[in-house]
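LAB NOTEBOOK - FOLDING QUEUE
OPERATOR: T.R.
BATCH SIZE: 2
PURPOSE: Compare the predicted structure-token outputs for two unrelated chains run back to back under identical settings.
PRIORITY: normal
REVIEWER: second-year student, initials M.K.

ITEM 1
FIELD SEQUENCE / FIELD STRUCTURE:
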Amino acid sequence: MRCPRCGNTPPKDSYVCSFCGKRLRQERIENFFIFQRFEEEWNAPLGFFTKLYLLIINPAKAFWDINHKRDSSPGFLIFLFNALIYGLFGLAIFSHFQITSIHDNPVSPLDITVTFGYYFSSFISFFAFGLLYYLLFFWILTYFFIKGANYSIGFTERIEERFGKKVEEAEESLTTQTGATSIFSIYKAGTLLQKQEANKYKMLFCAFTPFILIGLIKVLIVLIGMPNTTIAITSGFEIPTSVFNAMFQSPSWIVLDIIDTIVLIGWIPITMTIGIRELANSSTFRVYVSSVAIGTICAIVLFLLKPTIQGLM
């Protein structure tokens, strides 16, 4: 199939032209704004915060841009931002604990030395845990979304066919694919897109950008909804377990768990679908079906494993 706009020959089964971005096929699901393919001539990558903003309000445009220069994808920065917000989440939790004494010595709320060390250590602990947690969480979820896409569109085979060659081989392949040089060879973005490596995890980590916004909302919920309690730290800096039991019995945790479940079932499958379809140049509908199925299964498993849920069962 030759592209009616630029005259080049994109890889078989393509849904958009790899050279100029012209849409070659259209599915009904793409009539919805969130799934509409973005069709413009690409010139230069957008700024980081612009990408971050678009990944939330217009992921189709964001992934269209990211896909043209995947080696500078902000996926790992998004992972880092989520870890930082998890540190704020821990800080919000421990802000409800007021230390009244340490080793039977009274502590004033205005004691900057104690309060700063207490809050700083809380943030660092949760941030360090968040780094490990989100790295594993994002990697495992992306792995399962890719597995689902393998069943629906043969994702791995498609990206290996598009990006699995070395740069020198890719340049020769481009000449073979296009045959005679098109008069519309000014579309350099398509050549750049095909010469790069897939960088699939780095790109698909961008699909978890909604967790940044949701994480900030969860911090506010914790700050507003959690009860305040006083604690007396004994020898060994031990905190009575009754304090944590009272905190985790707060109904706010159920709200947080429900939010996570809705995001995993509703929002993440959308962003992951767009990321996968841009990377593989494939069907939107078929990827979305597999992504919703994977997101639903993961959400149910994670929801049932929550200690706050188990306490109600």
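ITEM 2
FIELD SEQUENCE / FIELD STRUCTURE:
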Amino acid sequence: MIAAWVTDPIARARLTAAARERRPRRTPSVGILWCATGDALYAAIADGGATAAVIELGDASPDADGGVSCVERVTRSLREEYPAVPVLVYAPLTAAASRAMLGLGRAGVVNAIIAGHDDLSHTFGPILAAAASVCVAEDAYTRLSSVASGGVRAILDYALRYVCVAPTVADAARVLRVHRKTLTVWCRSSGAPSPQVLVTWCRLIIAAERLVERGWSTERVARALGFASGSALASMFKRHLGLTRPALRERGSGVVVEMLVRRLADGRSRAAGVDRGGRRLKSV
């Protein structure tokens, strides 16, 4: 369900049509809950279960109702309280709207839906999916980085940032400007899983979140995230997480993140020579 603070009738009609276009067979269309005010938008997320927010950028002047400052204020509040909920701005392709994007990005807007373009093409669904992945990845990184060493944080940051293009260990080493063996040393020294396993888990975090969304079959998730097939993805869920697809559909990516948090925390404790209770382990 999308909560949309969009009041223009034509814009509403375009977004409704865009949400229905070119969906896979037997896939329900994305539901849109129309909101007339910022408070209504907030309530749709807090109480109505909306998983994404779209805000129309009206008058581009900073102080107008629905203008830049208002959108920034509502966005900042939503992202602070609901970091996993993506906020997108629905804006015209104008110079004034373009100038506003920097401030909106700082406030937490994840992406823009260009009026008269993205709402008249087949890009609406992919834009929403990509925005959701960004927010899930940001939230996962915040939780994982609290228990990861510096080197492992760098690997996680890369893998989560580029999860939608099927990142590899070689890609991570090239971007981080180190030899891939250095990545292995970083992981081993902090008791973390291998770089390959970390990259795989990051991909599984986003895959698990996609499974929760209506209309995302295992096969569709696999195609979107670069896995060989739906059955291959299901096998990876079972092998790495010990969970089935129905279990992940019910529990979402949070369970995957928590499992990896525990692995990283336990690994660092072992590497430091202490147990979970903080007691020094005896040397063997």
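REVIEWER COMMENT (ITEM 2): The radius of gyration is 21 Å.
FOLLOW-UP: none requested
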